[in-house]
């Protein structure tokens, strides 16, 4: 089967991508590892001893970075619908995190604890139909936010890929109601022509704090 122009362009970019070559040299599973490395350097997200949830983890680039940074006293729980080879300081649940079965496994692993940080570099399977792809991306982010509201500890942080488009402004508004600070980043490893950006939401508010912020102020 002949390659399409878009697939040929992607292959050319991938083969010549400096971050792909760097990942191969440094032993990272994917070029996306450098996105999390840069975000962590800028926003100080991951510390030794933390519990981190990685949604949509395969092949494991972000889990690999997080596992190194949390060290032996911390732990990463990674989940993806695709299989993922083992990594140090990382546990893995295979399955669709949008299903109740996988959500239950996440909470079984967590026990009475909560996560310090939730990360997600997930992207939907691209159909080529922009509106459908955007809707799928926002759907994943909305489900991630539902998980966060149940599983993230107060003042915890959230980092995720987002494609700018329909629904993204409303999503940012919802995040700003739940976190003390929300920033948008474009790491160097993110291809310039891509619409992807990364949300860095810091300081998860307790539900009581969110409710109080929504109340009208006395005058």
What descriptive keywords fit this protein?
Rossmann fold, 7-stranded mixed sheet, single chain, alpha/beta, disordered C terminus, 219 residues, globular, disordered N terminus
Give your account of this protein's structure:
- The chain starts with a helix and ends in a 5-residue tail after the last helix.
- The chain has one domain: 3-Layer(aba) Sandwich (Rossmann fold).
- Helices cover 43% and strands 23% of the residues.
- It is of the alpha/beta class and 219 residues long.
- Strand 4, helix 6 (130-151) and strand 5 form a beta-alpha-beta unit.
Topology of helices and strands:
Blueprint: H1 5-16, H2 18-26, H3 33-43, E1 51-55, H4 61-70, E2 75-80, E3 90-94, H5 100-110, E4 115-120, H6 130-151, E5 152-163, H7 168-178, E6 179-185, E7 196-204, H8 207-214
Parallel strand pairs: 1-2, 1-4, 2-3, 4-5
Antiparallel strand pairs: 5-7, 6-7
Helix pairs in contact: 3-4
Per DSSP, the total helix count is: 8
Mean pLDDT: 86
Helical percent range? 40-55%
Sheet-strand content, in percent, reads: 15-25%
Low-confidence parts: 1-12, 210-219
CATH superfamily: Vaccinia Virus protein VP39
The H/E string reads: HHHEHEEHEHEHEEH
- Classify the secondary structure makeup into a structural class: alpha/beta
CATH architecture: 3-Layer(aba) Sandwich
Q: Describe the largest sheet.
A: 7 strands, mixed
Instruction: Tell me the distance between the termini.
Output: 70 Å
CATH topology assignment: Rossmann fold
How many separate structural domains?
A: 1
- E-strand count: 7
CATH C-level class: Alpha Beta
Query: Strands across the major sheet, in which order?
Result: 3-2-1-4-5-7-6
Radius of gyration, in Å, reads 18 Å
């Amino acid at each position: 089967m002949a390659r399409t122009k878009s697939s040929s362009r992607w292959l050319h970019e991938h083969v010549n991508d400096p971050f792909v070559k760097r990942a191969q040299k440094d032993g990272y599973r994917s070029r996306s590892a450098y996105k999390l490395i840069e975000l962590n350097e800028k926003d100080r997200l991951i510390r030794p001893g933390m519990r981190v949830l990685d949604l949509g983890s395969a092949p494991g680039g972000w889990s690999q970075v997080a596992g190194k940074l949390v060290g032996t006293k911390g732990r990463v729980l990674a989940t993806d619908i695709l299989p993922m080879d083992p990594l140090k300081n990382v546990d893995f649940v295979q399955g669709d995190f949008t299903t109740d079965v996988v959500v239950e496994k996440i909470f079984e692993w967590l026990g009475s604890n909560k996560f310090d940080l939730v990360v997600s570099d997930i992207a939907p399977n691209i159909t080529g139909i922009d509106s459908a792809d955007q809707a799928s991306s926002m759907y994943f982010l909305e489900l991630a936010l539902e998980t966060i509201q149940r599983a993230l500890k107060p003042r915890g942080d959230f980092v995720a890929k987002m494609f700018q488009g329909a629904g993204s402004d409303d999503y940012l508004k919802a995040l700003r109601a739940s976190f003390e600070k929300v920033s948008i980043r474009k790491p160097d490893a993110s291809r310039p022509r891509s619409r992807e950006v990364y949300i860095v939401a810091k300081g998860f508010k307790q539900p009581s704090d969110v409710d109080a912020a929504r109340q009208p102020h006395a005058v």
